[in-house]
Amino acid sequence: MTTLASPDRSIRKGGQAKRHGRGLTGLLLVSAPVMLLGWLIIYPIFNAIGRTLFVKGDAGVRFGFDSYHQFLTDGYSLSNLWLTLWVTAVCAALLMATCLPLALYLRFAKSRVAALVQGLALFPMFVPSVILAYALIRTIGPNGAVDLVLNAVGLPKINSPYLTPWGPIIGLVWDNIPLTTLMLVAGLGGVSDNAVEAARDAGARHFALLRHIILPQIGNAMLVVLSFTVLSIFSAFTLPYVLGPASPEMMGPFMQRTFSQVLDTRMAVTQAVITFIICAGFGAFYVRSIAKNREARR
Fold first, then answer.
1. In the chain, N or C terminus with fewer CB closer than 10 Å?
2. Which domains, from first to last, does the chain contain?
């Protein structure tokens, strides 16, 4: 005796089949980017770590941390690492101090001047780093435009930041202003105008608004901004190479010189792995903030 399936059961089975098909299509769509990510990023990371830990010799493959021990006991290598950390911290602090007021103005200003200010803030995004470096050399370098102007009015020359740690700091801050400002403005987009107006009606001043209304709502956005800023500055090469000192030097030029001039491939890879470990720590803050935002939306 045959029985006919109920219409509700047929509808449920059809819906499940459609969801299964959409899920399979989604997996196929993301498979190519995931494979590309594994090939270009994941595999090189593990390959680099393996090359620093396993060394082929006459007696076969040897495991050891000797390259890391050499880096951590070498005074010149540590001075380069500390310089990179110091430059990164100073640049991050200067960017937040510069871009947060700028983002606040762009978020809440209603005048036409705000559009002009936004255009000026985004202008460094369209200037290549090499052109920026040589423009700074011709401006604040020895016998540059600033020195010529000071000499013309009878004032003494300035101590040029060119070929000092402050050279790449100036260049990196100027180069990262657009992205930092855009990310902060995007974070401020979640701040309710009604909450700001209500606080103003209650008599809150500007500092109180910033401390009690705005900053608590953009905490995750600021964490993301700091993560991206640190990753960008810590791995920079062009500006530290052109504007920075020869000794000590930042990790980007240090790795390149170790690889191409000293011809010590394993030590260059060791420097890259140490740099990656430090940057991965800041990347973890970004991943954590994204996960928290998704949980909050649910």
1. N
2. 23-63 (no CATH), 70-297 (1.10.3720.10)
